[in-house]
Write a structure and sequence with these properties.
By secondary structure, this protein is of the alpha+beta class. The chain has seven helices and seven strands, in the order H-E-E-E-H-H-H-E-E-H-H-E-E-H. It has a four-stranded antiparallel sheet with strand order 5-4-6-7.
């Protein structure tokens, strides 16, 4: 995947439409964020917000949550602006992995990147999540970006132009067929 083609994680925040961002304390980009409210997330990361109100809301909700719990992962994902169903998919998988030592749902997991948002989701909800992102983040600097899907599992790397729902459906079907999750003419 060519990094020039993909909007950087921090650019979406600086452009004003990504509600929050996690940044390493050692990042050379910290001076760009000096005017933004922040809190310590952990010993390695700082969590920056677009407004003091968003920061206070997060701190109020997070104060009773155990780090890396389902609830804390869910709150963080939503605070960072990710789609709710993908946040739940990640949080549930994280809980199962902690209990079993195995990451579940590898057959339906897919990486999704769009306009500074990088996350994993399920092929089952991919179209819903893309639609949610496109409808939620309508900033001019967001909608100029294509959406990308990737998977280390099968070296998948495909792009979808902004708002192209037909291409999105075809990409999802293609990935599912490649993984044997949809019947093909040869295996019916």
């Amino acid at each position: 995947m060519k990094s020039k083609m993909i909007k950087k994680y921090g650019s979406a925040f600086l452009d004003g439409y990504k509600p929050a961002i996690l940044v390493e304390r050692t990042s050379k980009n910290l001076p760009l964020l000096k005017e933004y409210p922040f809190c310590e997330y952990n010993e390695r990361l700082l969590l920056f917000f677009q407004s003091e109100k968003e920061k206070n809301q997060y701190l109020h909700q997070a104060k009773e949550l155990k780090i890396n719990s389902y609830e804390e992962n869910r709150l963080l994902g939503l605070t960072l602006g990710y789609p709710e169903k993908s946040v739940e998919f990640f949080s549930q998988n994280n809980e199962i992995e902690k209990e079993t030592g195995e990451l579940p749902n590898r057959d339906i997991e897919i990486g999704m990147t769009w306009a500074g948002f990088w996350f994993s989701t399920s092929l089952e909800i991919l179209e819903h999540e893309a639609r949610w992102l496109w409808e939620t983040y309508t900033h001019p600097k967001a909608i100029e970006n294509p959406m990308y899907f990737w998977s280390d599992k099968d070296d998948t790397y495909l792009s979808v132009p902004y708002g192209d729902y037909d291409r999105l459906r075809k990409v999802r079907e293609y990935i599912m067929q490649q993984r044997g999750l949809l019947p093909t003419a040869t295996n019916k």
